[in-house]
Specification:
single chain; 683 residues; alpha+beta; 3 domains; six-stranded mixed β-sheet; two-stranded antiparallel sheet; 49% helix; 10% strand
Amino acid sequence: MQPSKTTVTGLFSTPHQYQIPIFQRGYVWTLEKQVGPLWIDIQDRADAVLDQQALASTGTTAALKPIQKHFLGSIVMTPVPNSFGRAPAFEVIDGQQRSTTLQLLLLAFRQAARELIDTPIPQMLDGLVRNPGPYQRAEDHYKVWPTQAGQDEMRRLSDSTASIQDICVAYLARDGRTRLERPLMVQTYLYLYHACLAYMRGIDLSDAVDPTGDPTFGDSLIADIRRNNDISPLQAHMPLEPKRAQALYMALADHVQIMTLTLEAEDDPQVIFETLNARGEPLLASDLVRNFVFLEAARQGQPVPQLYERYWSPFDLVVTTGKGVSANSYWREKERQGRLTYPRIDLFFYNYATLRSQEITLASHVFQSYKAWWQKQPRDLEVELTRLVSSSQNFQELVSPEGTGYLAEFARLVKSLDVGTVTPVYLALRERLASDSAELKQALGDLASYLTRRAVCGLTTKGYNRFFMRVLQAVTGAPDAPHVALRAVLLGATATSEVWPDDSLFSDKWCHRPVYRELRPVKTCGVLRALEYAARGPQQGSNHVPAQPDLTIEHVLPQSWEKLPAYQIADMTEGQRQLREAAIHGFGNLTLLTQPLNSSISNGPFVDTLGAEGEQILGKRSRLGQSALLLNTYFHQSALSAWNDLAIENRAKTLLKAALLVWPKPAGSAATPVAVAAAICGN
């Protein structure tokens, strides 16, 4: 067997044909499970090319690091005996889905690049999607020749004269009201064509189409491919950028690797195929790390059973009430970070590898990154295992917070804001600063302020992985004062994608942004809950605040106000209506309750009223005032006789005073509960 490394363009740069044997299954990759994630990996490497180019343009070439390559997998093949007038060929024993998809990507990229003006890319791609010939058989021109079921699709998709509209017409998604199923190869081609166009317009398919909703551009594209005959380009009004097309080509040419294994005469293709495709549970990154570390221990003559028992067994085993042991399910449970979920142990090692290597780590490269860091210099096994266990405990307190301490509340805020990219920075701070130290409190206060202010101001989280990598490097590079280094980086950020919002911008967005709609309820709830926690102190008897799932957001002025006489405004103009629509979803009109009010109270009058028989009917103000949450003591004010636009504005300003105390820039002395409580109550 002859192994060799190549790239996407390298795989198809020679006049060879990769034939899929007839006994292999047809093309089965789907957009959601394989094609979409593959595109995200390729897009990530193209982004890395752009980032390096941007750094080079500043003249800092000495600090440039080589771009990390993305390993795409392997292709196992065996030579096909050649005959005169035929293209040299290989049968693909394993990797037919991957090789077919990559050829579809190059075909789609060529088609998309034709939209650019005066670029050589389509011509550069021509040689990667067609063997020049001449050949005795026309099919030898195709770089990948699928099984019979996919040959018609490959002919049409490879036709250089066919437009994207021709492809859509040849393979319809519907006939009148009847839904049709486009072949998977065609779906992949259409997806990758529009993904290439989107990338050239600066669109990330993993971004949400609308900040108020969950569907991403990728979700929208998939739905379009499945439902509509004509597929509209994403954000077609945006210009195509040639430099982004060049970065995509460079990523495919230099930074996406493939391992090819060419069988020799003595190799049995069937045995190898069965071995490669043997059924079994895939190894987690943590399994690979464990095997690597303890193999290293064995090589050094260390007592492996004792080391495992002392350091690693808590990841695998837990003592039961009967003093027996069972599998530790905690570390195998799934934890969400961003749009993806991972077993907690893999998520920990993803962040731990980033912490140690201080380089951006791909989720698919955790073990490789950890191993590369380990092998840079000799390691003391016990020292490293001790650090690993300590970090795992710090990670656990961040993703599964318990108690009412400030560390747990910081963790709850991070979870509600969904900013897992800060995890390696947190692990680095916890390694260097004592849990009860003023320095750690300052550092986490700065991080909380930075993250909360940016969330409230609606500033992007895109690029956080690269920004917090700089923060991590600063923190680890200042062992004596990591909190000072962290603050310096946060204050020094000036780009819109990184800046720490000042009081002016934060105040404006706090008072006027419809956060319930735009920030989304879960994040809005997290911010309000953090205010509630900050206001609690000894005078309240307990700083316990109900967990976020036990809280509900209440609109004081009901969302259905237009249908309720008690909240109408006579002769309201369209401008007034639009301002109110924004105001009712802002902080000034939002509060928290431990259980939702019933609809009759939620939509009822604000003040108490008298019933038909003279009995008092409690209004919304009284019901809110009965709440045990300090946020609602504001409604105790007897002078608060109406809830209207002015009242909403006044409460927004009141809550803003508390927010500026809790999340100052930079965090100074810790805000006291007394001061925050007074601000929340309007005193």
